[in-house]
Amino acid sequence: MVRRFSSPGWARAKSADARRGNLAIGIALGSGYQNHFAALSPEQKQAEIAKMRATGITWIRMDAEWWTVEKTRDTFDWSVPDVTADAMLAGGMNLVVLLNKSPVWARQAAGAAPLNSP
Questions:
Q1: pLDDT value of position 90
Q2: Which helix (H) or strand (E) holds 88?
Q3: Residue 40: exposed, middle, or buried by beta-carbon count in 10 A (0-12, 13-18, 19+)?
Q4: Who contacts 57 (Cβ-Cβ below 8 Å, separation ≥6)?
């Protein structure tokens, strides 16, 4: 599944007008792109990265699920997020990786204080 959307952001447009200085400084329309890369073939990944590069996208937000990386405490397996990260880095992209979805062993025990309590 591929989703493309636009949202306001602090970015400068890369159009000819922007290079000539004809755009106002401030908030410009940015682009977002969402794709589930793990399901794509290597050729499809390369094609999608090429499309992103062609539109000027060079930074990628990548979600990595903690429960797939560290199913048991202190035992790490980065093979799942590495599939996407390796393809992105090989394609010249920059990554911001967000680790989310905690594993069962790291979740709050019944009746315990919240994990974020002082």
A1: 94
A2: helix 79-90
A3: middle
A4: 31, 33, 93
Q: Where are the beta strands (DSSP E) in 10-115?
A: 28-35, 59-65, 94-100
* pLDDT tens-digit map of 23-63: 555 555 555 556 677 788 989 999 999 998 898 888 888 88
Q: Is residue 19 domain-shared with residue 43, that is, in the same domain?
A: no
| pLDDT more than 90, % of the chain | 25
Bridge-based pairing of strands 2-9 and 28-35 is antiparallel
Identify whether the C-beta of residue 89 lies closer than 8 Å to the C-beta of residue 95. yes
Question: Is 17 a domain residue?
Answer: yes
Domain that holds residue 4: 1-35
